[in-house]
Specification:
Blueprint lengths: L1 H49 L1 H51 L10 E2 L9 E5 L6 H11 L3 H10 L3 E8 L4 E5 L18 H9 L3 E2 L3 E2 L6 E10 L5 E10 L1 H8 L8 E5 L5 E3 L4 E2 L6 E2 L8 H5 L8 E7 L2 E10 L4 E8 H74 L14 H47 L13 E8 L7 E9 L2 E9 L3 H20 L4 H13 L8 E9 L4 E7 L5 E3 L5 E3 L19 E4 L5 E5 L1 H4 L11 H9 L6 H16 L8 E8 L6 E5 L5 H14 L4 H22 L6 E8 L5 E7 L26 H9 L2 E7 L2 E8 L5
Parallel strand pairs: 1-2
Antiparallel strand pairs: 2-4, 3-4, 3-8, 5-7, 6-7, 7-8, 9-10, 9-15, 11-12, 13-14, 14-15, 16-25, 17-18, 18-19, 19-20, 20-23, 21-22, 21-24, 24-25, 26-27, 27-28, 28-30, 29-30
Helix pairs in contact: 1-8, 2-8, 8-9, 10-11, 15-16, 16-17
């Protein structure tokens, strides 16, 4: 009890002493501080009264400068935003035109007419040309350009200030969307856009920009033209697009700005001429402007470099007056906004402000004296009351603290003696209660820990077993049996994948679409672990299903991208490279969805990167279309594919493995086959990374071309090669032991199909046809004719009526009719951009 009372007494006396000392110190400091503050306020008030005029003049000058900077930047930004929007539209229209004419085969010609009188006053899409240019020269390009019509109409509908939009070519073709078609039907109309300033400036700039302000030909107000160049397939400049807009809104915004009595605002062009302002006057003929040269009117103004793109304010002499002049760049049009305010007007405001400061200072001093007296009284009273309250509260709190501490000490003694079932019951609502609860929780946790340890260990073993099964399942989904195609001597392929976690997001695949086409896929799903593995399964399945349906890689990517974007709430995406190798011809068509470029080793050469413009990743955005690329692989050549886990492997110094090192190790092992090459590359990556952990999946695929198949022939689609084709087909039938009669029937059918391709598949000539013969296990022979000509199904034409006489029957169809009669089966399919017609003969052998 003595110890307990001693603790309480110490706490009480300590609190009392601290409270009294604190209040005394605080009261004295407050009174001294108030006295010092009053003296400083009086001194400051006197200095303020003496220098009010000077300080207010400086302050008003700064305020004027700040206000002018704010107004000039506000007006300039509004004008820049308005013109910038037009420039963005012009850039978008130029990009659309470039897309159309750099890839014209992707667009269908659309209906468009020349300008007509009956369309006057109605927004229409039409075209015009100089008289010297024949219609045949421009009509096809006008119909292609009409693909941009919807965008041009929408621009006229949304932007009220836009008067006209046009796509114009170097030879004078002028595709226009506006309501002024009647102007282009006049007898004297001979407009050549390529001679106009807006057209020439667009090609000189190489980007979007504006002309000087002009008067609209129909008297609708002031206007400018925003133009930009567009390009063709080889990057050559084909012409320029233009958007004619009214700037009445900008003109009124600047001329009606609130700048006081003497203030004014105007706009300068890049050469210092005033293009918008009260001093701009129409020329006598009403077609142009008389513009004062503001920047060159005095040495002071010229020194400011207002047309160089800066933003500032200076006091200068302008039109015989001292003025503050602020300027702000309108970058979209390469203009400069300028505002001026007379210095005399600013100083008048300064004098008025000085008088108001003096009156406010006197009133403030009276309020300060009153507040000081009240503050001193409050400090004294609060100090006395606080000291009494602190002593009372201190005594009560000392008692409240010591009693729970004694109980806690007793309970802790029991727990420390080994009684883990003891419960401490203290309800003080403070840290002591928290400490008691901690002891209670500790005893519960100690008991639970022993029970949970075994359960946690078992759960970890179960999760590890499940992840191991998931890894096995994922590995089984990828081709993992090598050699993958032991019966195919034309090529060899090998692949490996090393996941960064138990399961990975990388995947590869290869499979035969048919006997003559090998599909190769490598991909990388964003993220790692189980989510990436699940997304990988979906992407791999979709890609393979679409490819086996006969789609080219770019069409497969377009379809799979749309399917993956559906309900992709996790926001995952896939980079992917896919190629389809035609075994008979060596042609490789491929598409790239944001993936690393592969490396290719030509026969007798070194590994080089197969660069092509990659498309967007799969599942990243709906509506993406992918581009097809093409190359050729010949015997002795290699194709190496990989994911970014290879080039982005990191060592302990945070250095990347990189593309140059990958290329170096490949070239150092050019003679290695696929099954030897990939382990060599993986060993080099491991050596580089050292002890650094693997952060990403490492996946590699290698394809080696060995030889071309002997049952395939590719020749030019020309009648001169008919005998070679028939000899080739006959030799294959002879090898299969077919009778002379069956060989003659197949020869008739083969001649019909080859001649049809030679005559009709390639209207412009220069095409090829591939003939593939296959002896089937059931005793039949299949002969396929493949060409890259225009899609044509010879079986789609109805059979001729052979009951009619030759004079009564329509021309055509008899040859394919005979082919169907002579053969046991005739099939046609359009696959991977090829016409494939196959004849089958189930014949008795000799």
């Amino acid at each position: 009890m003595k110890e307990k009372n001693s603790i309480r007494r110490k706490i009480t006396m300590t609190v009392f002493a601290v409270a009294i000392i604190a209040r005394i110190v605080l009261g004295c400091a407050t009174i001294i501080n108030i006295s010092v503050m009053r003296r400083q306020i009086l001194e400051t008030d006197q200095r303020l009264g003496e220098t009010a005029s000077e300080d207010s003049a400086i302050a008003l000058e700064q305020e004027t400068v700040s206000r002018m900077l704010t107004i000039s930047s506000y007006l300039g930004q509004l004008a820049d935003e308005k013109l910038g929007g037009i420039a963005e539209h012009a850039t978008m229209l130029a990009n659309i035109a470039t897309s159309i004419f750099s890839n014209p085969e992707a667009y269908s010609p659309m209906q468009i007419e020349q300008a007509r009188d009956e369309d006057a006053g109605t927004v229409t899409l039409h075209y015009a040309k100089p008289r010297s240019v024949p219609v045949e020269q421009v009509e096809q390009r006008a119909r292609l350009a009409a693909n941009a019509g919807d965008f041009m109409r929408q621009m006229l509908a949304v932007e009220e200030s836009v008067l006209t939009c046009y796509i114009s070519f170097n030879d004078g073709l002028h595709v226009v969307c506006d309501a002024d078609s009647g102007l282009r039907t006049a007898e004297d109309y001979d407009y050549d856009p390529s001679t106009r300033a807006w057209f020439i400036q667009a090609q000189q700039r190489g980007g979007a920009g504006f002309t000087d302000i002009t008067v609209d030909a129909r008297g609708r107000g002031l206007g400018v033209v925003c133009s930009a160049p567009f390009y063709g397939e080889g990057g050559e400049t084909l012409g320029a697009v233009g958007i004619g807009v009214l700037i009445d809104e900008i003109d009124q915004l600047i001329l009606t700005a609130d700048l006081g009595t003497t203030g004014q605002a105007f706009v300068l062009n890049a050469t210092g001429e005033m293009v918008i302002g009260e001093d701009v006057q129409l020329s006598e003929d009403g077609t142009g402007f008389v513009r004062p040269d503001v920047a060159g009117s005095s040495t002071q103004l010229a020194d400011l470099n207002m047309t160089s793109g800066g933003h500032g304010v200076e006091m200068v002499s302008y039109q015989g007056r001292d003025v503050y002049m602020a300027w702000y760049p309108i970058e979209s049009a390469n203009w400069t906004l300028v505002i001026t305010v007379d210095v005399d007007e600013a100083l008048t405001l300064a004098r008025q402000t000085s008088e108001r400061i003096g009156a406010m200072s006197e009133n403030a001093m009276q309020s300060v004296d009153t507040s000081i007296v009240i503050s001193i009284i409050i400090v004294i009273v609060v100090s006395l009351v606080t000291a009494a309250c602190v002593v009372m509260v201190g005594m009560r709190r000392a008692r409240a603290i010591t009693q729970p501490l004694n109980r806690l000490t007793q309970s802790v003694g029991l727990i420390s003696g080994g009684d883990l079932t003891h419960h401490i019951d203290i309800r003080t609502g403070d840290e002591i209660e928290t400490l008691a609860d901690s002891f209670n929780n500790m005893t519960v946790q100690l008991n639970d820990y022993i029970r949970n340890l075994t359960a946690v260990t078992a759960e970890k073993e179960r999760i590890g077993a499940e992840l191991d099964v998931a890894r096995q399942i994922q590995a089984s989904m990828l081709p993992c049996i090598f050699p993958a195609f032991p019966d195919r001597k034309e090529f060899d392929i090998y692949a490996t994948m090393t996941p960064a976690k138990e399961v990975g997001g990388d995947f590869y695949d290869f499979f035969l679409v048919d006997d003559d086409h090998l599909a190769i896929v490598i991909a990388d799903v964003s993220g790692k672990g189980v989510p990436a593995a699940l997304f990988m399964v979906i992407a791999k399945t979709l890609i393979k299903n679409n490819s086996q349906a006969g789609n080219a890689p770019n069409d497969t990517f377009t379809t799979v991208n749309a399917q993956l974007c559906e309900n992709n709430e996790a926001g995952m995406f896939v980079t992917c490279w896919m190629g389809i190798y035609t075994i008979s011809t060596g042609k490789l068509i491929y598409a790239n969805a944001g993936h690393n470029p592969p490396l290719i080793m030509r026969a007798g050469g070194q590994y080089e990167y197969l660069h092509s413009r990659p498309g967007f990743v799969l599942a990243g955005m709906e509506g993406i279309r992918y581009k097809i690329n093409e190359t050729e692989l010949m015997p002795g050549e290699m194709l190496y594919l990989y994911t970014d886990g290879v080039t982005e492997a990191t060592n302990s110094r945070l250095e990347l493995y990189g593309e140059p090192r990958l290329q170096k190790v490949l070239n150092a092992n050019r003679d290695a086959g696929p099954m030897s090459l990939l382990p060599i590359v993986k060993a080099d990556i491991d050596e580089f990374a050292g002890d650094a952990p693997q952060f990403d999946d490492i996946t590699m695929v290698c394809l080696q071309i060995r030889e071309k198949p002997q049952n395939i022939m590719t020749v030019a689609a020309d009648d001169a090669n008919l005998d070679k084709v028939l000899e080739f087909v006959d030799s294959m039938m002879e090898r299969g032991g077919f009778s002379a009669g069956d060989r003659q029937k197949v020869a008739i059918a083969a001649e019909e199909l080859f001649v049809n391709v030679a005559h009709y598949a390639y209207p412009n000539g220069g095409g090829e046809v591939t003939i593939c013969c296959r002896l089937c296990a059931n005793g039949a022979i299949e002969v396929s004719f493949q060409d890259h000509g225009a899609p044509y199904n010879p079986l789609g034409k109805p059979d001729p009526d052979i009951t009619l006489s030759a004079e009564e029957r329509s021309i055509g169809g008899l040859g394919i009719f005979m082919t169907k009669k002579l053969m046991d089966d005739v099939r046609y399919v359009w696959k991977n951009g090829e016409n494939i017609t196959t004849i089958v003969k189930n014949a008795k052998k000799t």
